[in-house]
Amino acid sequence: MGPVPKGVFLTKGVGKHREKLTSFEMALRSASIAEYNLVRVKSIFPPNCKLISPQEGLRYLTPGQIVFTVMSDNATNEPHRLIAASVGVAIPANAAQYGYLSEHHSYGETEQKAGDYAEDLAATMLATILGVDFDPNAHYDERKDIWRVSDKIVSTRNVTQSAIGDRDGLWSSVVAAAVFVDLPNNGK
Questions:
Q1: What is the set of domains in the chain, with CATH numbers?
Q2: pLDDT tier at 146 (50, 70, 90 boundaries)?
Q3: Do the Cβ atoms of 90 and 125 come closer than 8 Å?
Q4: How confident is the model at residue 187 (pLDDT cuts 50, 70, 90)?
């Protein structure tokens, strides 16, 4: 049986460079997660997992460590092109129940719009397994009001990074991530 993380933190970053890979590395550095061996996973917020600050989460990691993450990234070398990367989070009221994380990356969306979309994706996935009654065709703001009054979803949020493509054609990269960590004493 694999590990079930007891902590997760949200982080984001942006990088620019003439090489695409280096631009991505710079975005990871900006997010403070470049020194880890990142393994992408999808998309469950574990039961009894605690959302912690990046500063607290980084204390439990060691350079070179294999670290599981739900990550979204995007890149462009097109001048003035708007890009975004976002991870949405939906946490159930019952801590023993799992929640959802979602990844979204886009072109031409503002940070607010991309973040709202990722948050809505996660909340919609959680609502469908919890039996929350909602209209899937309703606007996100209407559904968000339902999430707020539901006694089954305790919180939703997102971490989003946007950037505008470099005017001289350098690669611009953005990342957003939910990074899993093991907490001492079962997260207490």
A1: 7-187 (3.50.20.10)
A2: low
A3: yes
A4: very low
